[in-house]
Amino acid sequence: MDPERIEIVYFVRYFDPVRKRKAVTRYKLTEADARARYGEIELVEASREERRVGGDPRRNSAAHLHTGSPDKR
């Protein structure tokens, strides 16, 4: 199981060589992923989001609240 970590993701403004103008990504990416994909980028700071990834997948589960079916004695 991976340790839990926080990833910071953004919308990214980049130069689109096909349209010959700047464009904004449709999905949020980490800064490292965006630089690897688009090269020179500009982060849209207003779109900053912190996401928890890794760790125990059951941490957000409400399954522990379920006690099962009623006792049939």
Structure description:
The protein contains one helix and four strands. The protein is mainly β. Strand 1 and strand 2 (21-24) form a beta hairpin. The radius of gyration is 20 Å and the shape is elongated. The relative contact order is 0.30. The model has no long low-confidence stretch (mean pLDDT 86).
Biggest sheet record: 4 strands, antiparallel
Structural class: mainly beta
Strand content range: 35-45%
**Which regions are unreliable across 5 or more consecutive residues at pLDDT < 50?**
none
* SSE pattern: EEEHE
Q: On the 0-100 scale, what is the average pLDDT?
A: 86
Number of helices: 1
* End-to-end separation: 40 Å
**What is the number of beta strands?**
4
Shape: elongated
Region (Disordered): 47-73
Biased composition (Basic and acidic residues): 47-59
List its traits.
mainly beta; 73 residues; 4-stranded antiparallel sheet; 11% helix; 1 helix; 42% strand; elongated
In short:
The chain has one helix spanning 31-38, and strands at 5-16, 21-24, 29-30, 41-53. By secondary structure, the chain is mainly beta.
Secondary-structure topology with pairs:
Elements: E1 5-16, E2 21-24, E3 29-30, H1 31-38, E4 41-53
Antiparallel strand pairs: 1-2, 1-3, 1-4
